[in-house]
Amino acid sequence: MKTKELTNTIKALFAGDKGLLAMDESIPTCNKRFEEAGIPQTIEYRRAYRELIVTAPNLGKHISGAILFDETIHQSTKDGILFIDMLKKQGIVPGIKVDEGTTDLAGFPGEKITMGLDGLKERLANYYNMGARFAKWRAVINISPVLPSRGCIEANMHALARYAALCQEAGIVPIVEPEVLMDGPHDLKKCFDVTIRVQHVLFDQLFAQNVNLKWVILKPNMVLPGLSNPKPASVDKVAEATVTCLLQSVPAAVPGVAFLSGGQSAEAATAHLNAMHVKFKGKLPWALTFSFARAIQQPALEIWKGKDENVAEAQKILVHRASLDNAARRGEYNPEMEHDLNA
């Protein structure tokens, strides 16, 4: 096992007040967002959009690692420079999404299982040789009056643990992402109860599969009411519930937690992360950072609209959004900074 390299990757990913950028949307997901923005859904437009991101000036001041998709890791700028090399130039560690999406879980109506373990060992070796030094695998857990089931949680957490073991063997730091979805009318307490249950099973499975926790990054959902719940929770209440959940389920050996945004607006995700640092700064055994996708990219995508003349402005918005998440990681964000591009 490449222990020194795993340690160095962890240090690089949690350096300073930086965070991770998830730019690993699948082709269908990326095309859906392009369609909503009126952008043609072609491989060239996807390439141009990813070029906009990896060439954004000063992105490396705020982002320590970028999660790529298989299509993206093979792509280059119009000048022929691999995206993975553009990231390295900015001091950004390249990562890769390795799961192959979800399918219905047999025997469990309404629940999903993540695919991708078959052939994963070989794929990880190839990605390592290309320069990827961390990876991501996402499991999805639905909430309803009767879900999630024990069988669904255990099957998904076992897959996450097997993936993590294979990553460490390949010299790649695993991000484990057990996402409890926001869909539904459930309240904050229901999300808390399901999230803590899922994380307890996850760490049991990681232990059972001999995964070394000092080379694991947890990418969890924040504890939030469902999207269709009529009673939103305050920023402070979300922050307290989320960190309390982590303190009761995440071992101190884990070096860091990088939150997904999970359907939150860019402003809400940043405000919630900031409140956690304001309330708990200096009191936590692991680093708390971000691994946002849409919450960083969406404002830039809406500016770009697939047009070359909008690239510079879109890049400026992208980097500004990342800088606000940096401020939140320090507990120094305030909503007035949203409108100050020099913040």
Compact summary:
The chain has 343 residues and is α/β, with parallel strands linked by helices. Helices cover 45% and strands 14% of the residues.
What does this structure look like?
This protein is an alpha/beta fold. The chain is 45% helix and 14% strand. The chain has helices spanning 3-13, 27-37, 43-54, 70-73, 83-89, 120-130, 150-169, 188-208, 235-247, 266-280, 294-304, 311-329; strands spanning 19-22, 63-68, 93-97, 102-104, 112-114, 134-141, 173-180, 217-218, 256-259, 287-292. The strands form two sheets. The protein has an eight-stranded parallel β-barrel, surrounded by seven helices. It has a two-stranded antiparallel ribbon with strand order 4-5. Helix 7 (150-169) crosses helix 8 (188-208), helix 8 packs parallel to helix 9 (235-247) and helix 9 (235-247) packs across helix 10. The mean pLDDT is 97.
Query: What percent strand?
Result: 5-15%
User: Which residues form runs of ≥5 with pLDDT under 50?
Assistant: none
Give the overall shape, derived from the CA principal axes.
globular
**What Rg do the Cα atoms give?**
19 Å
The H-level CATH homologous superfamily, spelled out, is Aldolase class I
Spatial gap, N to C terminus: 42 Å
Mean pLDDT over all positions: 97
Structural class: alpha/beta
Main pleated-sheet profile: 8 strands, parallel, barrel
